[in-house]
Amino acid sequence: MKQTVEQTVRLYRSEDKIQPRAVSGWFAGWRWALVAFTQILYYGLPWLQWGERQAVLFDLGARRFYLFGLVLYPQDFVYLTVLLLISAYGLFLFTAVAGRLWCGYACPQTVYTEIFMAVERWFEGDRNARIRLDSGPWTLNKLARKSGKQAVWIAIGLWTGFTFVGYFTPILTLGHEVLHLSLGPWESFWLLFYGFATYGNAGYMREQVCKYMCPYARFQSAMFDKDTLIISYDVERGEPRGAKREKKGETRAEGVGDCVDCKLCVQVCPTGIDIRNGLQYECIGCAACIDVCNGVMDKVGYPRGLIRYDTQNGIAQHLSAGQRWRRVFRPRVLIYGSVLVLIFAALVASLTLRHSFRADVVRDRATLARQVEDGYIENLYRLQLMNASERVQRFSVTAQGLPSLVVTPELRDIEVGPAQARWVSLGVRLPPGHGLKPGAHPMSFRVEADGGEHLNEKTTFVVPR
């Protein structure tokens, strides 16, 4: 009679902490260059001044968005849509050409994880030293190292949150409020929330964000094909691995591959995968494994490129670099690139031809139309004039589209301050004997600035029964 053996299968298993080894090389240099560039940009922009104001400021309370010389209103929301389209098609293009370049080099999760890991190495040492420290007992030395790391992490997180809020509240004002402990509730919330998110994501969650929370890892395969440059392990050259090898400069045993099975490519991977197992969704394309493998190849005297950027077709068909790059310009890449150029050109043209002011017309809903003295029919409106420049502008308003329209009161030299908005109430009168049927008839307001620039804002004029 068979004996039944019970086995417990856990649906959840906590993963061991990944302790990446420090790596240096060509790709690591590029990665740190982009870390420096993105952080100088992020932390520095709020401190730049443009005239008497902050150069980049999203003033939600006043509904003004300042981008250097541009003053945008909520009505300019279309520009945000265009920027999102450019970002999306740029991501599609880069992914089709060379995989997860964004993830490996410029994604905020990658950037801040690199910064936090650098702090961790500074306090606790490289991979082996950190593993020994974590497994050892709590001592004064361990407490000092861990406390120092946490203090710097918290400082970076809070400074990141402070900078984030500084894009919405003038950063000099925000700094004064922080020093005097007079922050408002929303400013305090977002400073602490963004700081805590940076601290938690970059300090603790790290690869978990890339593997489980980021949707890009799941749908990247839809943008890959066999001519996409990805980080690849040359199986034909590297296998079999782990066999005994001769010293540098001596002949290898027959049938032995180039991979020495040192596992350094696994130890430097921030997501803990083995690239030798092929393309995996966890790979963020940081190329740390390429740098460390090239270093090993140099030491053992073998050619570089056992792990390299290559395409699936390139490895399978032994394509040369020229043949591989010629395949880059395939239909999907050309389509993404063409759409990206068209959208960007449209954005530049729109910003170039953009008026220095805007106007919005709102009908008076309380009184659609009424008859006044001398048989005139009057419609009431409210006109919002928005100055999108940083100089005082004066405007005149006239009505057109129907015969003999009269604007009351006469609107001449309406002054609107720099980057300010002003509401004006006005009426439009239609003389008797107009011959128009009852109902709504199209008309427009012509708003002309003192510099000669003008625009027409469409609306309707209602003739009562």
Q: For the report, how would you describe the main beta sheet?
A: 5 strands, antiparallel
The share of residues in extended strands comes to 15-25%
> Whole-number average pLDDT?
88
How many structural domains in the coordinates?
2
Distance, first to last CA: 99 Å
Rg, Å, rounded: 32 Å
Q: Given the helix and strand composition, which structural class is it?
A: alpha+beta
Transmembrane segments: 21-45, 65-92, 151-168, 188-205, 333-353
Pfam families: Fer4_18 (PF13746), Fer4_5 (PF12801), FixG_C (PF11614)
Keywords: 4Fe-4S, Electron transport, Iron, Iron-sulfur, Membrane, Metal-binding, Transmembrane, Transmembrane helix, Transport
Protein name: Cytochrome c oxidase accessory protein CcoG
What does this structure look like?
By secondary structure, the protein is an alpha+beta fold. The chain has 2 domains: 13-354, no CATH class; 357-463, Immunoglobulin-like. The chain has 16 helices and 16 strands. The strands form 5 sheets. Strands 8, 9, 10, 12 and 14 form a 5-stranded antiparallel sheet that branches. The chain has a 4-stranded antiparallel sheet with strand order 13-11-15-16, with no helix packed on it. A 3-stranded antiparallel sheet has the order 3-4-5, with no helix packed on it. The chain is elongated and about 110 Å long.
What labels would you give this structure?
alpha+beta, 16 strands, single chain, Immunoglobulin-like, elongated, 4-stranded antiparallel beta sheet, 5-stranded antiparallel beta sheet, 465 residues
Task: Give the secondary structure arrangement, pairings included.
Layout: H1 26-44, E1 49-50, E2 53-54, E3 56-59, E4 64-67, E5 70-72, H2 77-98, H3 101-106, H4 108-124, H5 127-135, H6 140-166, H7 171-179, H8 185-205, H9 207-213, H10 216-219, E6 230-233, H11 235-238, H12 264-267, H13 288-300, E7 307-310, H14 312-317, H15 321-326, H16 331-352, E8 357-363, E9 370-371, E10 377-387, E11 393-400, E12 406-408, E13 411-416, E14 421-430, E15 439-449, E16 454-463
Antiparallel strand pairs: 1-2, 3-4, 4-5, 6-7, 8-10, 9-10, 10-14, 11-13, 11-15, 12-14, 15-16
Helix pairs in contact: 1-4, 2-16, 4-6, 4-8, 6-7, 6-8
